[in-house]
Write a structure and sequence with these properties.
This protein has helices at 8-16, 23-34, 36-39, 44-51, 55-64, 70-83, 89-99, 103-124, 128-139, 151-163, 180-183, 203-214, 229-233, 252-268, 272-286; strands at 144-147, 170-173, 192-196, 218-223, 236-239. By secondary structure, the protein is α/β, with parallel strands linked by helices. InterPro entries: Homeodomain-like_sf, HTH_RpiR, RpiR-like, RpiR-like_SIS, SIS_dom, SIS_dom_sf, WH-like_DNA-bd_sf. This is MurR/RpiR family transcriptional regulator.
Length: 295
């Protein structure tokens, strides 16, 4: 995902029109959704070649979402580049100093830089209104199911654990010995599913989201692309940057987003939740779960 300050409205229009686009136009739209910064610096021929479609496909796609042609579509992206982004010269110098320490220093700098970029790109593309809307859906629901497999299973369980300090009826799925679709068997319009998957998308997560929607469940998707199958199917969708110099995708931005989402849930909740969190931790102190400081 490339960072851009382009208004989300254009990208949202692409996802809204996704179902009516031809397969070739969807390829063009997918490239724009995943590489928005490229739009402002590429001619229609250049971006068509990168997306592996014909130039006319981009023209038709632009018209489909209300623009006269590709140049009209590209204008807001070029304006965003002209205005410029945030600069971090001190961080850049810090990373350069680390890199000078040799091969391991270079790896260290690359990992730090990727983690910082992922956080910046993720939150630059997410509005507080979108987070608030998702938080309100969570708070007003009967049950919340948090779904992740592989590394995202740990992220789902961490979110559920933190939420349980002040709220009940949060479930990390799949449960041991179960499957996501079985865990959602009795979920309906009173419930929320938070689903996470990144490329290559896990089929059991995609299928669970599809079934949840059929059952009326409100879906909150966390994925690495607005064109991912769970993002397109969700009522609330958040895109996280997962790039890393190593072979595994980064979870840094996913964890940060989940923690932020939970803080929004607490902010929209009733005053009761603050008392519940305090009671939970007071009980832990009383049971000796926490190591107390010597007097």
């Amino acid at each position: 995902m490339n960072q851009t300050n382009v208004s989300k409205s254009i990208l949202e229009r692409l996802t809204d029109e996704w179902g009516s686009l031809t397969p070739e136009a969807q390829k063009a739209a997918r490239y724009v959704l995943e590489n928005p910064a490229d739009v402002g610096v590429s001619t229609v021929r250049e971006i068509a070649e990168a997306a592996n479609v014909k130039p006319n496909t981009f023209v038709r796609m632009a018209r489909q979402v209300g623009f006269e042609g590709y140049e009209d579509f590209r204008a807001p992206f070029r304006e965003a580049i002209r205005k410029g982004g945030v600069s971090f010269p001190d961080r850049a110098r810090w990373l350069q100093d680390i890199r000078k320490s040799g091969e391991i220093g270079g790896l260290y700098a690359d990992m730090i830089g990727a983690a910082a970029r992922n956080i910046e790109e993720t939150f630059a593309a997410i509005s507080e209104e979108a987070l608030k809307a998702a938080a309100e859906a969570i708070w007003s629901s009967r049950q919340v199911f948090t779904l992740g497999v592989g590394v995202n299973n740990a992220n789902a369980r961490n979110f559920t654990y933190l939420a349980s300090t002040g709220m009940t009826q949060f479930h990390a799925i799949p449960r041991p010995g179960s499957t996501p679709v079985d865990d959602l068997a009795w979920a309906d319009g009173q419930d929320v599913l938070i689903a996470m998957t990144m490329k290559p998308y896990r089929s059991e997560v995609v299928e669970a989201v599809r079934i949840a929607r059929d059952q009326g469940v409100t879906v909150i998707a966390i994925s690495d692309s607005p064109a991912s199958p769970i993002s397109l199917a969700a009522q609330h969708s958040f895109v996280v940057a997962v790039d890393t110099p190593q072979f595994f995708p980064s979870s840094v931005s996913s964890i940060a987003l989940l923690e932020t989402l939970l803080s929004f849930v607490i902010s929209v909740a009733s005053d009761e939740i603050v008392e519940r969190v305090e009671t939970f931790h007071r009980r832990r102190h009383q049971l000796g779960i926490y190591q107390e400081d010597p007097e």
